[in-house]
Amino acid sequence: MAGRGREPGAVVKVDLRDGRTAYGRQLEGVEVEFFDLAVEAELTDVQVLRSTPVAFRLWVMDRAFRRNHWPRVGALPLADSETDREQRYFRQDALSGELFIYTSRPATGESHETPATGEELHGLECAAVWGPEHVEDRLRDHFDGRPNGWEESLRPRPSPPG
Question: Structure pTM?
Answer without folding.
Answer: 0.91
